[in-house]
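Design a sequence for this backbone.
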């Protein structure tokens, strides 16, 4: 368990990594606020109790890892994985997971093939390479801009957290392929009473990894433009595992703090 009885991990997800090994993703409790850095390691064992061997490098302040070594998946093989987290305050381990906890081996291989085909099409001509920043909903509170009494963010242009109120403000960037539709104008009423404001929105299509949520940030590295994700829809899933997801996102003004994010 580590030095503390509190388990910060709320979920560990294992998905197929297109043509090679596995993809590991994990989520952290919103109440977890140990100081940075957070050092994660993916570990593998022959049984539910270990012994455990690290199969990933040290992953600093990140929430996913894609295995690059190709695995030959034997139908009789039983695999066990867990995530270890080390912070300045202690060491924590997730619950033990197997790769077929959510879907059986047959569905697992189908998911991998659908993702592989989608990526082949996107990397061919239809897609563009982008970066994804996941907005922080947990972690240490930013002391530079957040009022310690009311919890209000006093500076939306904060250089430390980019107006999120957490440190780091965003996790990533993660490389993703996106199919992006031409932009269209969405007339929204301005909140300041000055009339309407024209906002450019896009529909974006990607595979189910990594999971995306509202207020995450997409960066188109071909032109440097940045987008806030507004809506996420799961288009294809097997056994409740997202395979293809679509995003509705709007282009951020260049004055937004997310333009300070380093890609």
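Sequence:
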């Amino acid at each position: 368990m580590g030095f503390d009885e509190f388990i910060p991990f709320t979920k560990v997800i294992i998905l197929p990594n297109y043509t090679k090994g596995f993809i590991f993703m994990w989520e952290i409790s919103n109440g977890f606020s140990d100081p940075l850095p957070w050092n994660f390691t993916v570990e593998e064992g022959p049984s539910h109790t270990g012994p455990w061997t690290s199969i990933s490098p040290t992953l600093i302040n990140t929430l996913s890892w894609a295995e690059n070594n190709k695995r030959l998946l034997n139908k009789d093989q039983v695999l066990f994985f867990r995530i270890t987290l080390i912070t300045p305050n202690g060491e924590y381990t997730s619950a033990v997971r197997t790769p077929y906890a959510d879907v059986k081996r047959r569905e697992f291989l189908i998911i991998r093939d659908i993702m592989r085909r989608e990526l082949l099409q996107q990397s061919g001509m239809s897609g563009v390479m982008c970066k994804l920043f996941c907005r922080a909903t947990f972690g240490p509170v930013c002391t530079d801009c957040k009022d310690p009494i009311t919890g209000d963010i006093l500076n939306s242009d904060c250089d430390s957290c980019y107006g999120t109120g957490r440190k780091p403000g965003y996790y990533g960037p993660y490389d993703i392929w996106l199919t992006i539709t031409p932009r269209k104008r969405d007339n929204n009423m301005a909140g300041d009473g000055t009339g309407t404001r024209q906002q450019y929105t896009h529909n974006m299509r990607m595979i189910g990894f990594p999971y995306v949520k509202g207020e995450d940030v997409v960066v188109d590295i071909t032109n440097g433009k940045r987008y806030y994700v507004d809506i996420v829809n799961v288009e294809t899933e097997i056994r409740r595992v997202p395979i293809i997801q679509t995003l509705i996102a709007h282009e951020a003004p260049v004055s937004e703090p997310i333009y300070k994010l380093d890609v």
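Residues 9-101 form a domain with the Immunoglobulin-like fold (CATH 2.60.40.10).
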